[in-house]
Write a sequence for this structure.
């Protein structure tokens, strides 16, 4: 138990050093595109798509690599690689060479490395969970959101100090995380087996998800969240803050802080209740439905304090959705397919995100920001209705 507890502490430390920089990036990247370069709605959507699009290919590949290899050794490499893009971008900014193609290149590089790292880190969690996987998932999710919140708070200073110091902080924290990952125990290798090709291995993961009555509805809802929630959040909200509320990095940070602070509240609450919950699917469905209602309310463009408060409510739903969905998959997935199934889970968010960013950015460019928020809300309600009609999500029970 002692070694598992120390391993879990190292796991959380490594998680923090990854997600604080991610929080910085969440504000700094759209700020550079929308506020510094003053790009239009379509260009902002394309840039956010570049940041998230690598997930479509590299999340499944990252999950397969983690299932077949040593996740700890792989994660060490990813930390080193993830420090390179912000250092390069900081150098470009220092020389006055910022351009839209440069930001697209940054987004593709950072998004690719992150896509490999996420399922790799998730695959290590059951090994250090100290006997209570639902609680470990909730605490890890809370720290993930907490790290993003700290990063978002740091990025709120971009208007005053500029981007280079924040990019250097991003790289330094990621490299600091090497010490935490080094302390993680080396996982036991899987029993020797025939190794099929890439596409057959990915197909095996998809097949395992499709055959599980508990996993497929969660993954489908999660993909809907990526397309219809993550996309507008990343591509449309920065435009609303800039064009309607006439805000900069500080106002954009307030919106992000409200959202991610709420996810921490939700994740910590469910860490305390972890083993008392069984109707996790019902919670996921209700939380996703709440998001659609909030998105329609945001489309009315209320006063800015109410706009921020609505993002807090949205964040509560996101915290419930992410903790309970991830817990279901961690509990139900077989160890031999766990990383691949977790990569499919993350693919719903990160892979659906660029599709949603492109669609919502295009809608905003043609019909305006209100339409770009209303359309995904109604589309998500249709997805929810279909999942409830075709699955046992409302009544299914999931216990460790």
């Amino acid at each position: 138990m002692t070694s598992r507890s120390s391993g879990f502490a190292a796991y959380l430390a490594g998680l923090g050093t990854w997600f604080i920089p991610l929080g910085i990036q969440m504000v700094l990247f759209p700020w550079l595109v929308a506020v510094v370069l003053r790009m239009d709605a379509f260009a902002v959507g394309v840039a956010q798509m570049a940041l998230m699009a690598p997930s479509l290919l590299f999340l499944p590949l990252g999950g397969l690599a983690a299932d077949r290899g040593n996740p700890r050794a792989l994660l060490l490499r990813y930390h080193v690689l993830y420090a390179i893009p912000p250092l390069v971008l900081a150098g470009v900014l220092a020389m006055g060479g910022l351009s839209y193609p440069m930001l697209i290149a940054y987004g593709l590089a950072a998004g690719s490395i992150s896509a490999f790292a996420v399922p790799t880190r998730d695959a290590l969690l059951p090994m250090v969970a100290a006997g209570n996987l639902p609680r470990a998932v909730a605490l890890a999710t809370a720290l993930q959101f907490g790290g993003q919140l700290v990063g978002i708070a740091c990025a709120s200073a971009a208007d005053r100090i500029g981007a280079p110091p924040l990019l250097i902080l991003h790289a330094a924290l990621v490299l600091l995380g090497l010490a935490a990952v080094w302390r993680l125990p080396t996982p036991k290798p899987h029993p020797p087996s025939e190794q099929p090709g890439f596409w057959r291995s990915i197909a095996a993961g998809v097949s395992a998800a499709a055959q599980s009555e508990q996993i497929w509805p969660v993954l489908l809802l999660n993909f809907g969240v990526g397309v219809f929630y993550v996309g507008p959040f990343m591509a449309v909200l920065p435009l609303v803050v800039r064009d309607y509320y006439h805000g900069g990095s500080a106002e954009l940070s307030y919106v992000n802080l409200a959202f991610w602070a709420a996810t921490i509240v939700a994740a910590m609450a469910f860490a305390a209740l972890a083993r008392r919950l069984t109707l996790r699917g019902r919670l996921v469905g209700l939380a996703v439905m709440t998001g659609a209602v909030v998105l329609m309310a945001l489309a009315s463009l209320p006063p800015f304090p109410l706009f921020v408060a609505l993002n807090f409510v949205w964040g509560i739903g996101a915290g419930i959705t992410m903790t309970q969905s991830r817990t279901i998959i961690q509990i139900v997935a077989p160890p031999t397919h766990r990383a691949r199934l977790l990569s499919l889970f993350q693919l719903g968010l990160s892979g659906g995100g660029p599709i949603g960013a492109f669609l919502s950015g295009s809608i905003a460019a043609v019909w305006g920001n209100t339409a770009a928020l209303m359309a995904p809300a109604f589309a998500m309600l249709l997805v929810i209705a279909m999942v409830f009609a075709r699955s046992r999500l409302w009544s299914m029970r999931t216990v460790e």
Remarks:
- The chain has one domain: 2-182+198-390.
- The mean pLDDT is 83.
- The longest helix spans residues 2-36.
- The radius of gyration is 20 Å.
